[in-house]
Structure formats: C-alpha cells, structure tokens
Amino acid sequence: MAAFNERMASFLVLALALCASGTWAVDRGNFKTCDQSAFCKRQRALKPSESPYRALLETMELTNTRLTLQLINDNNKVRLLLELYRLQGNMTRVKINELKPLKPRFEVPDVLIRDPPTEPLSLLSQDENGVVLSLGSESQRVILSARPFRLDIVEGRDVLMSLNSRGLLAFEHLRMRKDTQADPESENKEEVDPANQDETAKDDEDKVEDGMWEETFKSHSDGKPSGPSAVSLDFSLPGVEHVYGIPEHADTLRLKTTENGDPYRLYNLDVFQYELYNPMALYGAIPVMLAHNSQRTTGIFWLNAAETWVDISSNTAGKTVFGKMLDYVQGSSETPQTDVRWISESGIIDVFLMLGPKPKDVFAQYASLTGTQAFPPLASLGYHQCRWNYNDQEDVRAVDAGFDEHDIPYDFIWLDIEHTDGKRYFTWDPHKFASPKEMLQGLKDKKRKMVAIVDPHIKVDNNYKIHNEIRSRGFYIKNKDGGDYEGWCWPGSAGYPDFTRPDMRAWWASMFAYDQYEGATDNLYTWNDMNEPSVFNGPEVTMHKDAMHGAWEHRDVHNLYGFYVQMATMEGLIQRSGGVERPFVLTRAFFAGSQRLGAVWTGDNAAEWDHLKISIPMCLSLGLVGVSFCGADVGGFFKSPSTELLVRWYQTGAYQPFFRAHAHLDTPRREPWLFGPENTALIREAVRQRYTLLPYWYQQFYNTHQTGEPVMRPLWVEYPEDPATFTVEDEFLIGRDLLVHPVTEEGSRGVTAYLPGKDEVWFDVHTYQKHNGAQNLYIPVTMSSIPVFQRGGSIIPRKMRVRRSSTCMEQDPYTFIVALNPQRTALGELYIDDGHTFSFNNKEFIHRRLSFANNILSSVNLAPEANFSTLSWVERILIVGATKPSQVTMRTADGRESQVEFDFDTTMSVLTLRKPGMNAGADWTVTLH
C-alpha cells in the first residue's frame, strides 16, 4: 500500500508539473502580467509630472559623510526619510524609507559584502529651492531640488542621471485597514503616530482599490495584512540610448523599451520551457542595469528582493535611421534619453548609482558592493556530462567508459533527482545506487568527479531524517496561520526550509559532512535546482507571498531564497573539507551577490536554434552584472536536437564559461558518440578545443575574481567608443583577446563577424590568417568551423596535450600563442596554482606577465611575494605575424643562454619555436635575431 501511495504521489506531481508547464510549452496564463499584479498596475497608472513629494529643507542634516532630510507627500502628509551617501569609488547611495513606519520595512541583508565605505560630502550652496552638494571634485555635484523633490547628478555641464525627474516617486506607507470591524479608536493610538505625518494620512487610506489588501490570481488568494507597500522611483539618463542587464530574461542583450507592453519583470519563477524575446520573469533576478554611450558607462543597483518590474522608455525609440538623420539636418536639439522606472512590491528604496565613467569602472564599483565571481576549481571549467537521469551505477560506468572509448575528455558526470531514495535529498536509491562510494572511487581513479542534485523541497515523511530534523528544529517556512508551509514538488508533499535563517543555513551546511551525507566523497559536488522556490501547486508555480520567514512575509524576501540556498550549500562543501577545498555549486535561482557562490545556467531551454542563439545574450547579460560562470544546457533540455544543431551547440558551448550538456528524462539519449562517427569527431574536436584553452579560461576566472570584469563580455566593453558594437549579440569576447562568433543558423554556409577596433588586427586561431579591425568580415563555414579570432598584441597560453580530464593535464607543458600587432607590445598572462584549494589566498600561486616587444619575448613575475612551483614547462611558442629571424636565443634567470630551434611558415608568417624547455614558472627571455 505504501508503494502504491508513493507511485500515486509521483503521478500527481508529474501531472501538476505538466499542468504548470502547459505540456512542453510555457502557459502564459500561469504567470502574471503587470495588469494582473495589483501593485504594478496601480503604480503604472500614475501620471508623470504630478509628483506630490517635496523636500523639507529645514529638516536637512549634513554630516561629513551623510545627508538626511525629510520628504513630504502633499496629498496625504506622510513623511519619508531621505538618506544620501557619497561612497568610495565614484558611487552615490540613496535610501528612502518611511520616517516612522507602522512597523519596520524589510531591508535586504547579506547581499552587500560590507557596509560600503563613505567619503566626505560638502555643501556648495543652498537656497529656498534646494541645495547643491559636492561629490569630491568641483565638477561632480548633486543638485537636490525641493519642489517637487528631484535629484540630479551632474558632472561639469552634463547631467549624468536624474531621480524623480518624471515625478514617479511613489512610496505606499504601511497602514491599518479601516474597512474592518476593528476598534475604530485603535487606529489613532501609538501604532500610527501623528508625528509620522503633518496630519494623519487620510486621503489614500480611505480609498480602497482592488488588490490593496488582498488579491486573487487564479485560485490563489494573497492576503496583505499591512496593505499596499509598493515603492517606485524613476531615473532619467540623458544622452543614453543603450541599457543592459537586469537578468534573467530570454531577450536581447540591449534592453527594449516597454511602453507598448509589459515591463521587464524580476521575480524568480520556475518557467517550464520558457518563451524567447519577451520580458517575462525567469529563474533569477539581478536588479542591476548598465547604461552606456560612447562617452560614459553608468549603472543602477536597486537593492530590493521583492517582486520588481522595470519600465524602460526612450525618446528615440521607434525613430528610423532616416528620422534621426532628419533631426540632425534640421538641427534638432533633442538629446537622446532613456528613462527607467523601478517598481517593487515592498521593502524600501535603496539604490546605488555607479558613475563609471568606463565600463570596467562600473564592474569594479559593483564588485566593491556585492563581491566578485567565486574562483572555481579548474576542473569545473572543463566539460560536464548530464541528463535527467543516468539510470544506475552501471549506466554511469558505461557512460564514463564511452568517453574513454571515443577519446573525448570530460571532468564531471551529473545525477539528477532519480538518484535519490524517493526524492529524499542527501540519500541514494538503495537498488540503483547501492554503493555510491564505490562508484565515486571509480571516477576518482580516472581523476574525474560527480555532481548530484540536492533541492530545497523536503519530502514530508516521518521516516526521513532530514525532514524530522528540520521540523523538530522549527526550520520550515510557516504559512500565515503559523503551521509549517507545505506545497507540492517532486517528492509529493514537501516542506521548504527557511534559508533566510542563519541557524538553518548552518544546519544545512552541516548535512554535507561526510559522516552525515552517507556515500559522499570529496569528488562529489552539488547542484541546487527548483530553488526559486518551485511549488507546483502554488501561485505562479511558487510560494504564497503571505508565507512567513520569521517576522517577514515571503513577498519581502522572495528573490533572495535561491541565493540563500546556494550560500548554505557552498558553505557545506567548504566546511566538509575543513575550509581547504574550493566548492562547486550550480544554482538555478539567483540574486545580486550570487556570483560569490558558484555557477548558474539558463534553465530549461529547448532543442531549437533560437534557444542556441539566445544563450549568448543571456550569458552576456549575466556577465555584465557580476555572474561570469554562466552556461546553457548544450543540445537543449527539452525536445531532441538535429545532429546539426547538436554539433553547433557543442561548438558554441565550448566557448561559453560553463560547459554542460543536459537533457530531459523523456528525450532520446544523446551522449556525444551516438550520432555517427562524423558527428562524434566534430563534437570531439569542439570539446578538445575547450581543453586546450583551459589555461586561458582559468586565468580569465582569476582575473574576474580579482576585478569583477566579465569573462564572457560584449564587444562594447572593450570598444566602448564604437557604436557598431553596442547591439552586437551574436558574437562575444573571452577576456579581451579572443573573439568568438559561433555558427547559430541552421544550414549556414557563412557568417558575418564584426571585427572591432580601427587599430586592431585579428588572427583566425585555426588558420592564422590576418584581418584588419573595424570591418564586417564574411567567413565561409563548414560543419567543422568555429570562427574564433585572437587579437593582435596578445599572448594566450594553451595546453595542446588533451587528456581524459583537466586534472590529468595538470603538469603538462604549455604552448604560447603570440599574436603580433606592429603598433603595440603583445601582452598576456599566465596564472597557475593547485587548481582546487584556497591556497591561492595564501599567496601560493604563479602569476606571470608575458610580453613581446622589440623582438624580445619575456616572462616576468607579477607576484614576487607569492610562492608556488610547477613541473610544467614551455614546449612550444608560436609567433603569429612574425618575420623570419636568422637565429633565436633564450636566456634564463641564471644567465644561461642557448639557441632555440625554429620553423617559419612564409605563407602565414608564423614562427614556431620548438622545445625551448624553460619552466613555466621561471623568468626567461627569448630573443629573435
């Protein structure tokens, strides 16, 4: 009977999942539009230029680092408190909260890595209309206008950014409901302090609109005991036509205007087989937007974890190129401008204005607030093989052997939910995975690893240790009545741990210890899925907003949930090794700061060409806002790819940061060797190209860990003054020196790549053919083609001996590819450490600068205080764009000099130095005579 009940529960869960999914296609009706989201509809109905807010200048207080003053809403007399800070690194922070709220409003914790350090503010002038503050230099100022309230950030004669210039600031104050049977006298007691308002707020309190105190979506009712609590603010960006960021959306890199449709939505949701090119919410939400023109890059970080909508309008939207030319000829003085409005359901306004001026300055500014990308283990940059699900241990062994048989390297094999004992996480199916340690040891013997899924929905089962522990400790999220919140997910009835609690996260982390997670070993890593959280029978396939996390409603913290799940899991993997080993954790849901915790992927995509194409702008958008470790399911999760699509996806995925193939339970098997010898060879070559470039990938991840600069980046990041790069999304840069234009069109016989930079030269990495920059280059392609170019003036390290995994290649020799540009010194870097521990934090690494100038190639130590040794040596140097020397000599640090054998290809101007033989971590010079 128990087995029947479990089968019945599984059937119901699958039926619910299919209903939620619209059976293989997203059912838009499961997800709200702005009109169906009461606070969004209410805020969007406000008319511009009718702001009721004014600044009460007599309340202004200015200390060395902080300005405060009160704002009053003249319609209802509610007062707000404005705080303004000048932050180190050319940033300004603006906070707006109720002066005396009925109860505290939620302020996002744990996302900022520290309290941001401030710098002095000084008053330049003041009159009855407003104040002018200096932001450090005379040229950069904040102008605060009193009636209506408005802030302008000005540099010289240019307005960089304006707040509330359209008058759309809105702050719905917390209040007690008047249309109830409560004691009418109680509302005038201490909870509503008249000092909060010049007069007791009345006008909008008496007006009850649909959705203010409760709203219904489909069969779900959402009670709002504190009433409406939305916050909103508009930002104007003069001179800006291009804005980016606010992932996650399956949309273009450059954000579109939203005037004729829904705003972009930020609300972590399990959107089964999502549609492309629309602003619907997806699995993650990072409320960060970048604005760019050829003079400047700025950023807006809206620190709010509630459901958020972002409206974008532009005064140049819809104008044709001819229309813009006509404006120019006729002398139109209209400056291009983009206006952005942020609307959140609850919380406060806490916004960071990142003032650049260069793209890399904005990356550094955001990194100083929320941290940089976690430095991943080297092996995690290799290839990952996954499906839902490998059947049993024998299946895992056979797939592992298949990679060896077909000479395809890989580092990780993955197990989805079916590996558990009845969807009980931290367990193994006792029949299919009866001896997990033996299975993991077999992988370890080949220097390979495994990832197993651990989801945050916990099967309600009194015989399940994890459930009993969470329930007995009171760690489950509560429903509005105080009982444990339960919803349906893969196990059937499930509880949801409250990861917002530090003690819950600490307990969860302890469950990854080897004496708790039975069968786990040090080569087992973790995947957190369904952590939006996904609730099959909940509103919009997620949790009810009136569920409780201690004192806070779920509506306040929703977009933080997945962030906290990944945080607790990451801490567990670190703790199990005594703090020695770097973790690897993949998450589906994420928020600002998630880059510190591991990797993300673009969720449940489909085996369609458009899904392959969209993976590029989706990962570029994530990189712009801190998350560099991004990838998409190679081949598509749903449906079955044609062999052409599968090959092209491998070729694209091999040049994206996170490289994993994954497929749905109901799709035919698609291991790389199942499509005939010719396609196997094409896939093998793509994967091998990834492995030869692992030294470069690793160095790029070290760089992003240090600086916040994206690994996979749009062309405009490196060529910010070139408008031709501003909307390019079918090609990208890895670091600054590799340009990739994957083939993403079915039946393609050629692609047109834009090679940026009027002073640049670009070399095809396969043929070494040279091309000038600042041109559109047509490239004929065959099925074996992956158009990749190395920038002239760069040096890229590779390892050409590809073995079964990255760990097997650890001590292998290096090849340096030196691509010359006669106008500049060629530069590159080499970074080496042990590949898997935190020892790099203790200066145990090698970091060297490679440079070629005046016919001398040298390796210089960039970190003389660091200490690490390697057995790897340099076995080959290719100098592309060279002239033939008469001889080549090498000098080592101890003064020894020797001649180096070389070949010269006159047709391609490639000089090959053979076996120079120096240690990769040593000082040396090579001179061309």
Distance between the termini: 85 Å
Total E-strand runs: 53
| Global structural class | alpha+beta
Based on CA inertia axes, which overall geometry fits? globular
Question: What's the alpha carbon Rg, rounded to whole Å?
Answer: 29 Å
Q: Supply the number of helical segments.
A: 16
For the sheet with most strands, the description reads: 10 strands, antiparallel
Mean pLDDT reading = 93
Helicity range: 10-25%
Spans with pLDDT under 50 lasting ≥5 residues? 1-23, 181-201, 325-330
Measured by DSSP, the beta-strand proportion falls in 25-35%
Topology:
Blueprint: H1 2-21, H2 38-44, E1 53-62, E2 66-73, E3 79-87, E4 91-98, E5 122-127, E6 130-135, E7 137-145, E8 150-155, E9 158-163, E10 170-171, H3 203-206, E11 214-217, E12 220-223, E13 231-238, E14 242-245, E15 264-266, E16 288-292, E17 297-302, E18 308-314, H4 321-329, E19 337-344, E20 349-354, H5 359-370, E21 383-385, H6 393-405, E22 412-415, H7 436-445, E23 449-453, E24 458-459, H8 465-473, E25 486-489, E26 492-495, H9 502-510, E27 524-528, E28 548-549, E29 552-553, H10 554-557, H11 561-576, E30 585-587, E31 599-601, H12 609-624, E32 630-631, E33 633-634, H13 643-653, E34 659-661, H14 677-692, H15 694-707, E35 712-713, H16 715-718, E36 732-734, E37 738-740, E38 750-755, E39 761-764, E40 770-772, E41 775-780, E42 788-791, E43 794-798, E44 814-819, E45 826-832, E46 846-853, E47 856-861, E48 874-880, E49 888-892, E50 897-899, E51 901-905, E52 910-914, E53 924-928
Parallel strand pairs: 21-22, 21-34, 22-23, 23-27, 27-30, 30-31, 31-32, 33-34, 44-48
Antiparallel strand pairs: 1-2, 2-3, 3-4, 4-20, 5-6, 6-7, 7-8, 8-9, 9-13, 10-13, 11-12, 13-19, 14-16, 15-18, 16-17, 17-20, 18-19, 24-26, 25-26, 28-29, 35-36, 36-37, 37-42, 38-41, 39-40, 39-42, 43-44, 45-46, 46-47, 47-53, 48-52, 49-50, 49-53, 51-52
